[in-house]
């Protein structure tokens, strides 16, 4: 493996020629694997620490995005980290279906059980590969490969995964959350106008039941089951493109780039994001991470978790504050899992996906537009 990821010094194209045979041997994104001895995964916690970058010293970054030159220089090391994560993906699968690992032992010998940390690592890798497939493939083209980097520099987080942006994750998350806030009001207004179609007294009664308390920057703590029922019963299956773009921005997509993407792709991508949120929420609750106030999550993990859900994150928010916001979010979701059939009950439903994606915007704007209460 060390030979496979040894790079020449004249650019990312040479590194990609080393990586090419590995990627060519795979049939689809998300099923990547490397052949490795199962014994190397006998201690899953050890590999998990290698897989996480949180144990590394944080790089103090003031600016939000890397320059074109920085992207070119860091590309080979980013590929190295990506390959390492692909290895870990396969190792996690091998460990899950082996009786000889500490996960199964701690879960009464249940074969196939994967803890939340490793499950989210697998989900994140699939999201990352979806991002990097095109730019990494283009960078492999001799002579012209480097021409992709000025385009990547325009929106690095849209084209590249965290493997290539080490040290920039928190500033980028800060800017992305700021962009999301600009779309929250329009997104929430559409939700309220869409679902509040009954008489004024009924609307006011619904609103009184939804809001419970305030949670600062994350908005209100709402009655999750009541809000879920409201969305599930009344949300339409067809959404106008203009509103679809707002939801995409709330979900973390680049406002400029998403405007030129086809609606079919946006809708598919939103469904994938909602699915990952539902699965991760379920795992966090199942593994008692929620009960512990999310203190067991590393700084990298809590930043990724909040960014995925549209919760407050960035340079001006401490990691402990982020953990608190995630815990409050899980407190809203837990009754829904308990009363609506668990993750199986939520997966596959368009209304459930829209509920999850609208939730951060709704919490910050629990008061519907005035004209909906007439």
Automatic annotation (TrEMBL):
Keywords: Membrane, Transmembrane, Transmembrane helix. Residues 115-330 form the Letm1 RBD domain. InterPro entries: LETM1-like_RBD. The keyword Translocase does not apply. It holds the Pfam family LETM1_RBD. GO terms for molecular function: ribosome binding. The chain crosses the membrane at residues 132-154, 244-266, 344-364. This is Letm1 RBD domain-containing protein. It comes from Chaetoceros debilis.
């Amino acid at each position: 493996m060390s030979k496979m990821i040894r790079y020449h010094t004249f650019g990312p194209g040479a590194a990609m020629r080393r990586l090419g045979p590995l990627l060519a041997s795979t049939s689809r994104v998300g099923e990547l694997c490397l052949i490795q001895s199962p014994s190397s995964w006998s201690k899953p916690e050890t590999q998990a620490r290698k897989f996480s970058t949180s144990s590394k010293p944080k790089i103090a970054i003031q600016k939000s995005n890397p320059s074109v030159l920085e992207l070119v220089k860091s590309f080979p090391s980013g590929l190295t980290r990506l390959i390492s994560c692909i290895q870990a993906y396969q190792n996690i699968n091998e460990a899950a279906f082996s009786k000889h690992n500490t996960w199964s032992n701690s879960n009464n010998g249940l074969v196939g059980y994967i803890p939340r940390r490793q499950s989210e690592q697998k989900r994140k890798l699939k999201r990352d590969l979806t991002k990097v497939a095109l730019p990494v493939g283009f960078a492999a083209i001799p002579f012209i490969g480097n021409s992709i980097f000025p385009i990547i520099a325009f929106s690095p987080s849209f084209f590249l995964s965290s493997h290539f942006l080490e040290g920039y994750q928190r500033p980028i998350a800060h800017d992305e959350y700021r962009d999301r806030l600009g779309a929250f009001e329009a997104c929430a207004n559409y939700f309220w106008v869409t679902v509040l179609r009954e008489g004024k007294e009924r609307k006011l009664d619904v609103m009184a039941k939804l809001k419970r308390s305030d949670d600062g920057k994350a908005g209100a703590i709402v009655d999750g089951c009541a809000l879920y029922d409201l969305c599930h019963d009344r949300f339409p299956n067809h959404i106008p493109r203009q509103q679809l773009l707002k939801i995409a921005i709330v979900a973390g997509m680049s406002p400029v780039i998403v405007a030129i993407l086809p609606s079919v792709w946006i809708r598919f991508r939103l469904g994938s994001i909602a699915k990952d949120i539902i699965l991760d929420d379920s795992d966090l609750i199942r593994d008692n991470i929620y009960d512990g106030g999310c203190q067991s999550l590393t700084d990298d993990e809590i930043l990724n978790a909040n960014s995925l859900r549209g919760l407050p994150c960035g340079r001006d928010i401490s990691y402990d504050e982020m953990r608190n916001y995630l815990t409050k979010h899980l407190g809203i979701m837990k009754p829904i899992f308990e009363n609506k059939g668990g993750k199986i009950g939520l997966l596959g439903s368009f209304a459930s996906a829209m509920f999850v994606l609208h939730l951060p915007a709704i919490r910050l704007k629990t008061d519907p537009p005035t004209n909906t209460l007439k």
